[in-house]
Write the structure tokens for this entry.
Amino acid sequence: MTEEHGAGHIAGALSFLNGNDIAIARWTSDELADKLIPYFGKNEHYRGGHLVLQGVQCGDRVTIVDDVLDRGETLGALIHLIESRGATIDEIYVLAEKTYGGKSFGRANLSGRDIKSLLTVEVGGRRSRVETANCRFAKYCDNPEIDISRNLLHSSYEGKDLVEITSPEGKKVQFMIVPLSEHYPSTQADLLRETAFKIGQYIPRAQIDKIVSEFDRCSHILGAVSLYTNMSIAGVKWFPGPESRGTAFSMEYHKGNLYPYGIQRGDTVYIIEDTVSSGGTLIGLINLLRNNDVYIEGAVSAVEKKEYRGIHRIQEETGINVHKILDVSIAGDKTEVTYDRYSA
């Protein structure tokens, strides 16, 4: 498991390869965090919102993966949430551990924890430099066999709970509690593999440089699709990084800015998404890409909420046609799959 905006793509890639189920901790707005308590329990205040732990149950044995260990605040909050849930942490891995003049503040702040870092990176000077590399490639891992005959994607969206929330514009909307994006009760590796396969059929690998997604609720899918297609990835997040200029967007449970990560001028990309609701996220993403002189080859979403007609809105406002695998109705008390590209 991991914190989504930092290492969701890494967790998705590991699940795709190793067959482990996924749990995610993610930044969530106040109202939505409160509505999710019956499903995921108590959460912690985090970056002006809440850190909600999704997919961890009492008695689980958990391996944490993270991208960077700096001061340890996020990792510390994650550890506290997991252990307060009654789960056991077996191992903690970070890709890079920052040191300042040889000192790791994150390790000091989390003393007593056995944290395994693949790289130690000194950042105390004018430029970062790798001090130690604690890893080696033992063998090349082939992609796993993927069985789509069970149609797990379809069943994972059939008859699931709906939670009413208020959009930033004040409208009442229906939020789906499903395994793929909400990790309830968790995201099965076989479900993630099947989703990566089905999304991957749309991606024109010879025509693009990268696949791109918005990280919230899709970063783990991005990581899995990257391995399946052998394509480089880039993404957009809600928090500023190397590129501080954001692009405004609004969707059913959040309003703010999108910031690019790994996107270069002149790229040709293909967009992937977990769910299209109102279409606001993809419209914001498309505008951001075009503002950065990126050519968009196309887009695909695992799911469209039927009643919201977000794909139609995206087509009208941007000219981009978004393919979909499932249509899911949210008109009743539970979700209902009304279209499946893979059903007879």
